[in-house]
Amino acid sequence: MFDVAFSEVILIAVVALIVIGPERLPKVARTMGHMFGRLQRYVNEVKADINREMELDELRKLKSEVQTAAHDFEHSVSQAARNAETGIRSVEEQLNAADTAAGASASAAGPSAADAAPTGMAVQQGTAAPEEPRQSTLPGIDRI
Q1: Mean pLDDT of 60-84
Q2: CA pair distance 110, 106, nearest whole angstrom
Q3: Is 114 a domain residue?
Q4: Residue 127 to residues 78, 106, 109, 124, 132: CA-CA distances in angstroms?
Q5: What are the pLDDT digits (tens) for 98-120?
Q6: Residue 38: inside a domain
């Protein structure tokens, strides 16, 4: 802290012995020691407080960085979910449109095929295998 040589300390002690006197010198030295100890404790407490504040500031910065990263991640995940949902809806609409078009062409071709059948052949009703319900290829999407 201070750059005091041994010779300077001896000089200060001799001057203190002359000024204060030999009777009061031990009491003054003890008091100075207590004051010096208090000063050291106070300086150490201030250093510790400054270090704690610096650590708290670093933790606050880290907290804000983590919150920003979490918010960005949440935003990107929600954006990806919206994009996926939009894609799924467009595929579903395309499949529904294809089903509607196939149903319309089958109903248009159905009566003309029955009219073209020979009159001697009997049409068997109920012998065709029942159509199995189609399952959605994408989970969570029910077709109409």
Answers
A1: 95
A2: 6
A3: no
A4: 51, 19, 20, 6, 15
A5: 888 887 777 766 555 444 445 54
A6: yes
Provide the domain limits for residue 68.
6-97
Q: How many CB atoms lie within 10 A of CB 28?
A: 13
pTM: 0.43
How many residues belong to the chain? 144
Q: Quote the number of domains for the chain.
A: 1
Among 142, 144, 141, CA closest to 88: 141
User: Residue 20 domain-assigned?
Assistant: yes
Q: For residues 25 and 16, is the Cβ–Cβ distance under 8 A?
A: yes
DSSP 28-41: HHHHHHHHHHHHHH
Phi-psi region of 140 (alpha: psi -120 to 50; beta: other; left: phi over 0): left
